[in-house]
């Protein structure tokens, strides 16, 4: 079993994520094989694309080649529109235990509903398909579908001060019902996708396995538990039913992990990560579940991955070297960088250049970078 160093793993992932900027077409980016998460209101998906293409002219939000929908873990992700119909069966749980894990429900909750967990998901999907025949805000769609589903599928919501369909159930059922999200809409707005595909009758196990394989390709070497964390299931289900074949086993930092065997040579000899990037909150690179490998210091992890309001990450020479936040004032953007360690002047100059790209993506004419003490 080969032993690989942490620096090799990070360099491999940086290359696998396309952060060396080898191409300019967002549809060709490897991260779109898994999907690019959208953190609403901050152009994060377009910033993730710009970090990989170096261009501010390419926007997932305005490109009809991409579909935004609640997919992995019920979070909004952009996917290639041509691949979206085929993704839906791969999102359907392989069994009732998988459905409970993805919903975050206890078995007693499914028993109270009087139906198996996968049937709960199908019931919600059928009701959503009936309720949402045109663009509807999330609130309106929730109210409409709540009137159709059995009472046991609804919950009292303290924030809304109302009873409505369980939030995660609605998020997981919406894509199965052929519903996407309108990019940039506030509040969140659901809309039927063109040619509205049928609700999957059963799980696409090879497709779901392909999702796990893609995770291992982008975020590997990784474990079954880490892949399960991304898709929203359990380690036992991923390892027992969705684990790909033809994987290479390696040892990283004293633990065993896997990646596709055809990527082993790239892992052993990755290109030097001599680059500086301002990664947005929710960037695909930050979606790896082994956060301690990305950022070993616990306190720094807490700065980067918060419950709400995550900052962006400064990637410099193979390491996450700090965080950044942006504040707009008219046509001017101010980016505040909080480095984890002192940075050479050359790195700071490259951060300033990347800040210009961030401002261009966000539509601001001027940008100022603020450093500690400035």
TrEMBL record:
Pfam families: AlkZ-like
Domain of life: Bacteria
GO molecular function per UniProt: DNA binding
Keywords, sorted A to Z: DNA-binding
Keyword DNA-binding in record: yes
UniProt xrefs under InterPro entries: AlkZ-like
Name recorded for this polypeptide: Winged helix DNA-binding protein
Organism of derivation: Prauserella shujinwangii
